[in-house]
Here is the input.
Amino acid sequence: MSKSKEIEGSELSLESASKELPSSVENNDRAEKIPATPIDSTVKDDQTIEGQQINGFEGFGFNEKLITTLRNKGYNEPTPIQKAAFPELMLSRDLVGQAQTGTGKTAAFALPIIEKLEKPGGPPQVLVLTPTRELAIQVAESFRSYAIDQPGLKILAVYGGADFRGQINALKRGVAIVVGTPGRVMDHLRQGTINKSELKCLVLDEADEMLRMGFIDDVEWVLEQLPNERQMILFSATMPSEIRRISKQYLNDPAEITIKATKQKTSLIRQRHLIVQNSYKIDALKRVLEAISEEGVIIFTRTKAITLTVAEKLEASGHSVAILNGDVPQNQRERTIERLRKGTVDILVATDVAARGLDVDRIGLVINFDMPFDKEAYIHRIGRTGRAGRSGEAILFASPRERGFINNLERAVGQPIDKMEIPNNETINKNRINKLQKNLVKASETGRDHEKETVLLKELIDKIGKELKIDANEIALAAINLALGPSPLLSQEDESWIKQTDQRRYRNDRREERGGRRSRRTDFDQSSMDNNMERFRVEVGHRDRVKPGNLVGAIANETGLKGRMIGKIQIFETHSFIDLPKQMPSDIFNNLKRVKVMNRELQINRSA
Here is the structure.
């Protein structure tokens, strides 16, 4: 009989994990074989022994190098999912864990795996399956960061779109841990380039996402190829019946852990929305960025093409912007995140998949430039701010036709998403003046690094004052003018379109109050989408050996749609039909025409 453990609370950072939860999981039937160190013997992170700080990860059986690495990374106390999973995984038990993104589940399985590895290289000992290449890269990087003091440990991410030959060569040289997407792992298994002889552990990460993207058949094929005697770990945010079936069929007496989500996380985030016509979205975005001073901003868009458009417009307005989408190479992605973390770039324009798992403390504002298709996507997006117990802000852009979706998002997060006005010139100018004042105060308090330069500048001011016979205030004003440059301090841009938008919204609100016309209540689930689907034709079929999962995966990766948002699929010899939501923008289909499935472009078109 499997053991099920349900835990309240899922604060989304290692530092802010709950310290009141049970810290050990009993295992009576195995206790005699492998004695487990009771977790309640660990101490809180503010306790000391002989003046030395004690780390909450001690007591699980991790070696000193791993403990030191976690301490250096600032990880002082395990999260709830980690506290519950560590004892079971250190006993080599199979495990089913249900927890949302951001609860620390990667470390929950990665740390015990690293600890229990028998050797750093050779044939793979661990295989981790993830739904997307971005998540595969992220998980592989997490393994590397935890094993930084074990330079001989080899970890490889394998995914489509990367050089297959390079992956083969790396596998031949010896890799202890392989992290990959189902399709590319299947390719390697068919080619025999992944040696299965010493595989001792399989991890399914975000199993429900693999189901939604149509990869579940591929996952089961992989499972059938692997040794029967191996540890299996399954993590999923939700537990649909198909994932539950897989856990019962392939896992052996698994421990079951559920981390119940709380409202504490989203309650730290102030959530607002504004209604704006699509033609004015860029203008509204610029005004929001001018009116709200935050040191780090993430702007989420629906497609890769929109990330480019938004970034170009903002750069032209003088903002420091970087892009993160599926086309960005891993080394550039790492540099971009590091620049955002250090503050050399302030705005990141990203797609959902590319920003999965992104954790940068200085993010104070998240902007949903495009309405997400899915409630989970919205929660994931806004979760990029308000990290580690800090407050944050999230702003949702919605078109008049998308007003009905906001109620559903409010139910999902358990709090209102308040209306906000598009900032006018007066609001922007107040913020500019306040920002200038803060910068002047900060500059006056900071001074220059070199004292000789400060003395030189003071002498220069005295010299100018005497020669030109002007006082210090006039010199200070000249210095400010020099710093501001030719751009005006106060905005005088046309704002008539804002007033028109506000008047239109006021009329709509009045109609709803009188009951004359109510917002269409539309849930983000398949039943509500059935009446709002449109059929499209794609130029791939049986001759291309295409399967429904291939189509779902390609479209989901490109559009950000969840698999369940994609409707009926009919595959014929030379083409296929697929039902997609009507409200999807036209630019998505232009991008999909160039997307390849089985080495053939979709060339998607509306069905006649």
